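RESIDUES AND SHAPES:
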Amino acid sequence: MSCNLIEGMFQRLDKMRKNAFASVCLFGEDNNSTISGIWVWRGHELAFPLSDDWQIDYESYSWKKLDPSLPETKKLVTEYLSWSGDFGGKKFNQGKIFK
C-alpha cells in the first residue's frame, strides 16, 4: 500500500520529469513502514509551490534542504542513490526512482 502512495505521487508529478529526479525509499515492514527520499531539481527552493498541479502530495511530507558540504549529507545521498547502507538504523524494504 505504501508503494502505491509513492507511485501515485510520481504519476501526479509527471510534468516535473524533465526538471526533477528523486530516489524514494520505503522502510520497515507491512503495516509498519515509513517513506523517505531525496529530491533534486533546478533552483534552491521547493519546486512544488510553483504549480498547483504539483501541490497535491507535497504537504504530506516534511522537507529539509540538505547542505552538500556536510559529510552526513554525502553519506545520505550515497545511501539513497545506491539503496544500500544503514539509513540511520532504518530497515530498507524497497525503493522507487522518479526520473
